[in-house]
Amino acid sequence: MPLVVFCGLPYSGKSRRAEELRVALAAEGRAVYVVDDAAVLGAEDPAVYGDSAREKALRGALRASVERRLSRHDVVILDSLNYIKGFRYELYCLARAARTPLCLVYCVRPGGPIAGPQVAGANENPGRNVSVSWRPRAEEDGRAQAAGSSVLRELHTADSVVNGSAQADVPKELEREESGAAESPALVTPDSEKSAKHGSGAFYSPELLEALTLRFEAPDSRNRWDRPLFTLVGLEEPLPLAGIRSALFENRAPPPHQSTQSQPLASGSFLHQLDQVTSQVLAGLMEAQKSAVPGGLLTLPGTTEHLRFTRPLTMAELSRLRRQFISYTKMHPNNENLPQLANMFLQYLSQSLH
């Protein structure tokens, strides 16, 4: 049965959407398997995406797990970042080899794929996107905005060093401001991100989020391995179950490459019989056209097909067509076609001459 690939950055709601799709398909009586990072690693570990070697091993384990589960009877849901288009192409090849359809579900955070945690007060200027690498910037009045208690402590320490005073000389009012800032950090998490974090259970550092954003290769429906593509923005948008069902259960599987298909078994005398049958057809055709009239039908012994006689045919022309027919038939040998070789050759001559 089909393969469903989820794609998106962390905190975009992939796991919740995957669970929603699993419940909907299981309610229809279908066998559904979910493959995710936790199932492969034993526990979700965001630090894997900070190490290229471990991440490569993770992708290999995910691909192997999908390949084991993929069949014509079960639905497999891959819940992972899947942000590399080369890896998505490998999954497409797995589905094509298994002769089963697939679709891609792209989950995007409401602020866009590159939007990070919003800063307190950012709602006053909704047109401004704040990156995850946000750092405090001095305002016009000279006061610095703090991103957390750690930044405030660094600023206070630097001020103490400049003034030659110790940390104990900091006024109590400043300490109270620092403690208040620690209790209410400036980084505010949107509701969609909170719900996504709740479903994920893993914490991605801002540096890792920014690195994943830079490495992310967004799906493109113009690529055959990225379609059919369903894009979901936020958790408020309903899951397009009807479209996903149509893509999975009504579409045809990707056609396999001819070079990867095993050749049908053929007997050792196939080429000898092919050469003998085509030679007999040419001999009978040269003999039949001696008494034929233009516009008549030529009937050859051992065939049920007829060839319309329009002009005299030379042996050189017929031999050239015979070599072309033999070259094509050798690429697709099949013992089942042996009784029909004469008719097939006569049809080929009729289409090539008229």
Automatic annotation (TrEMBL):
Pfam families registered for this protein in UniProt: KTI12 (PF08433)
Q: Identify this protein by name.
A: Protein KTI12 homolog
An example molecular function term from Gene Ontology annotations: ATP binding
Sequence segments annotated as region (Disordered): 116-149, 162-199
Family listed: Belongs to the KTI12 family.
Q: Which PANTHER family match?
A: PTHR12435
Which domain of life does the UniProt lineage start with? Eukaryota
Q: Which InterPro entries match?
A: KTI12/PSTK (IPR013641), P-loop_NTPase (IPR027417)
The biased composition feature labelled Basic and acidic residues covers: 170-179
